TrEMBL record:
Residues 53-193 form the Phosphatidylinositol-specific phospholipase C X domain. One of its GO terms (molecular function) is phosphoric diester hydrolase activity. InterPro entries: PI-PLC_domain, PLC-like_Pdiesterase_TIM-brl, PLipase_C_PInositol-sp_X_dom. It holds the Pfam family PI-PLC-X. This is Phosphatidylinositol-specific phospholipase C X domain-containing protein. GO terms for biological process: lipid metabolic process.
Amino acid sequence: MGSTVSTQVQKRKALSTEKKVLCDLNQSCGCDFPSSDYRPPDRKAWMAGLGPEKLHVNKIVWPGTHDSATNKIGIPFVSRPFAQCQSLSIYRQLVLGTRVLDIRVQEDRKVCHGILVTYSVDVVIRDIKKFLSETEKEIVILEIRTEFGHPDPLDFDKYLVDQLGEFLIHQDDHVFGKTIEELLPRRIICIWKPRKSPHLKAGDPLWSAGYLKDNWIDTDLPSTKFDSNIKHLCDQPPVSSRKYFYRVENTVTPKADNPVLCVKPVTGRIHEYARLFISQCFAKGCADRLQVLSTDFIDEDFVDACVGLTHARIEGKA
């Protein structure tokens, strides 16, 4: 009993120290970066607003959501707080400016997060189609993976192609150097990550798992995650020469050996530091590597930060 209490005391001290590290860094260094004051006039159509003819895929800083389809997961006030990472529907996230979606499915094609389940993936597809019908020049990266511990849904690749075929941008390394205008009228880069990898090749309508990479650090300590994100980003080649998307997740996650297990208060420890992260990328010399930035509980300011840096890149300011 005594050792358990001592361990918890040490963990609380570590958390307090790490929160102070980020707070002090924010106060001393600030969170300014090129075009950090830019605000898109219409977040629903921010790509169109920046000019699709000059917006190259590899210059975009893509705002993404982590565990995107968890707004209605589990039982309200009972299990939902332990697995909900977004409060908005997929459609509302896209309208807000999200352009990378992280969807996990189980064998019956229902979206899940661990052992908790929510609506069918059909709801996700319907929301994406609704958004695409209301916009003309927005591109979405849709990552769908089989959740850990589950078998792949039967014929799921065929399902995705049947549902999204007319919108799918086919797997092609040349896409990274193209503008949004050159990809239209196709609108979705769909990356399918099954447990048993299919044989996908250049020209296929779906993209292989290796086209969206990250270095996930499973921690609830904000400064540890922040520093790890910087370190791994520095290890990547610049976006100008990269033939895959690299994601940084501005999130921390609850740990079973800590008393706070609800997602929102835990991820809130790092949530406000997205702009600080971007500014530190410039300070550390790795801003030219930043590409996909994801978060829990996405908000307008997070989207604006990503769009602002994208604006700076196409204007030659970053």
